[in-house]
Amino acid sequence: MRGAVLLAAALLAADGADGAVGPSRAAQAGASASAVASDVLAPVLVSAPEWQRMREEGKRYPLFAGEQARVARSVRAAMAEGVVVPQPKDPGGGYTHEQHKRNYLVIQGAGTLYRLTGDRAYADFARDLLLAYARLYPTLGPHPAGRGQIPGRLFWQTLNDSVWLVHAIQGYDAIRETLDPRDRRRVDALFRRAARFLSDETPENFNRIHNHATWAVAGVGMTGYVLRDREMVEKALLGLSRDGEAGFLKQIDDLFSPDGYYEEGPYYQRYALAPFVIFANAIARNEPQRKIFAHKDGVLLKAVDALIQSSYAGYFFPINDAMLDKGLDTAELVAAIAIVYARSGDDRLLSIAQRQGRTVLTPEGLGVAEALAAGRAEPYRFRSMMLRDGAEGNGGGLAILREGGEDGQALVMKNTSQGMGHGHFDRLNWLFYDNGQRVVTDYGAARFLNVEAKSGGTYLPENSSWAKQTIAHNTLVVDERSHFDGDWKRGEAHAPTPLLFDVADGVQIVSARMAGAYDGVAFTRTQALVAHPELPFPVVVDLLRVDGAGPARYDLPLHFNGHVMTVGFEASRNIEERPVLGEANGYQHLWVDADSEASDRTRSLTWLLDGRFYTYRFGASAPTRALLVESGANDPEFNLRREPALVRRMDGRTDAAFFSVLEPHGAYDGTAETVHGADSRIRGVVHVRGEDADVIVLTLASGAILALAVADDADAGRAHRVAADGRTYAWTGAYARFDARAGDDGSNRPRTEEMP
């Protein structure tokens, strides 16, 4: 039956494929609407029986009914304004850009409301909008504000044209059978033109393995299903050559790791997830034999969990070219939650839908609304995990260590691969969250999305000169140069090597090694989230070792969020003038506010953030300077946020080690005017290097000892011994934790054994 439908549709679609209808074709098409088999015109992205059930049942469930009311308000407002389809001229954020965005949402919404209410006015308005586009589209050339080498037609870049197609074709599918044959031919021709532009006419975009191409293949493939055009569907699935070297299936294979991590990071995973799951849902409806949601061991289902896990306090980790304000309530994830819940039945997803307060007007959205009304939601468990990167899972990974629940502590170590052109030069970077706040931060992207006043809403020049540069991140910089000298294509060839990931009672730990970011230089970083009964919150222990090729300058920045309380080291303050730290590679954007002499002592910095204090104790294997800096220098257009950082600088060394401990503590209540626990509970931090291992020893205020020992390799059967501060630490395996009470006799055994 499916083949017959497609064949009949292909013959029908050939009529007026180029927008020109000859007399014989017009006569043939206009004979009678009933001459067209109903199954050729029936909706295929959501079936007629499914629409009927939503119409009958939707009003019973508050989440679904509320979403329908929201869409109705938006569509009615557009109907009151009338058909407005302007000549494209503006970049992102401009009037014509925003109007065309509103229009594709209205086309989809009006089609949906027609099916849910039976009100023909909705279908007619969607038809009128589409006919206006059918008149406009053939007149369009490259967008006058075109961005890059492939400008769009309706928008300044092809990506937005693809998004238009994904939404508009869903609205058209809902109303297509209501159009008379003449109008149907014109609108069919519109979608064929748009699909041809996004595929055959722009192969350099369509055949890419990239989120822009994901939107393109989704739009073209869904259009193929609606128009019953088998060739169009095959191009979307397998690439223009239909050999499987490009297209939707190849994108699933190459862009997602086996754990569901997306190559460009959480921000772009959120954006790309919509076309992935929406198109997959269309494939599942029209070609269930493909078993698309089982493809690559069900990776599209895993991708939703991976994305949710890549968030804190409702916001995604701002990795790579990310905006800080995107989170779990984003529209793309609303759609993905509904589709994946329909496939998995995982009731934890319902708690995310509950948080979102929205669903989609589809059978899957109705299923979410029904389940929520039945009280089936379960809490989503945010857990410690390693998300492997790379198509085969061998491209490093994103380590997430959590303690204390959703808004407790989260340590994120970014040991992922480059992330293509949206990737930043920040191997072995880290972030830390606590008390619902970003504590150790990442700048994300330098961009004001769709704000026309700021470069038309696209990436600002400072995205390249600052945000992507290594000094803008919390990782090693050598000789004031960024990793791979800022060449992302070089970076694509080198991924970190994971060494260790373990989650145990009282200590969670991750370690990775990076080689290739600088010629002849390799660096290894180990981070742990460690709890102790005398410490109110877990602390972060950080150890970074450098194996160099020769004497060099090593900088290790820490970008933090909060107000400095105590500078625990002598430093000269730049009060009258603010010198700039350097001349290039992001250094030109940093003002220097304070600078210390080189010292081999362990020092500290304390800041306050949202009622909690944070003390950062740091030292190194050789004398280092400590510089307090702030972003915003050489920024005449005021594009950059002003954010503080601490830079630790070591000069003239070949090999080096940097160690630190970040301790959350205390509370400040401005309303009650109370402060307690403002002083650190850690009295000292010592680092000792052994023959094949390191030990970091924390002495607490009571005199108790907490030590973390880390071996150079992760061999579970290898024994290690390090003498430190009058004690001997002996263990077998990749790491060990040691605890001793004040006055202990010094015999140190791993924490897994009882200490005297």
Walkthrough of the structure:
This protein has 756 residues and is α+β, with helices and mostly antiparallel strands. The protein folds into 3 domains: 1-12 and 60-255, Glycosyltransferase (Alpha/alpha barrel); 286-381, no CATH class; 393-444 and 455-680, Beta-galactosidase, Chain A, domain 5 (Distorted Sandwich), CATH 2.70.98. It has 20 helices and 28 strands. Strands 8, 9, 10, 11, 12, 13, 14, 15, 16, 17, 18 and 19 form a 12-stranded antiparallel sheet that branches. It has a 5-stranded antiparallel sheet with strand order 3-4-5-6-7, with no helix packed on it. Strands 22-23-24-27 form a 4-stranded antiparallel sheet, with no helix packed on it. Helix 6 (95-117) runs parallel beside helix 8 (158-175), helix 8 (158-175) runs parallel beside helix 11 and helix 11 (211-227) packs antiparallel against helix 12 (230-238). It is elongated, with a radius of gyration of 29 Å.
In short:
The protein is an alpha+beta fold and 756 residues long. It contains 20 helices and 28 strands. The protein has 3 domains: 1-12 and 60-255, Glycosyltransferase (Alpha/alpha barrel); 286-381, no CATH class; 393-444 and 455-680, Beta-galactosidase, Chain A, domain 5, CATH 2.70.98.
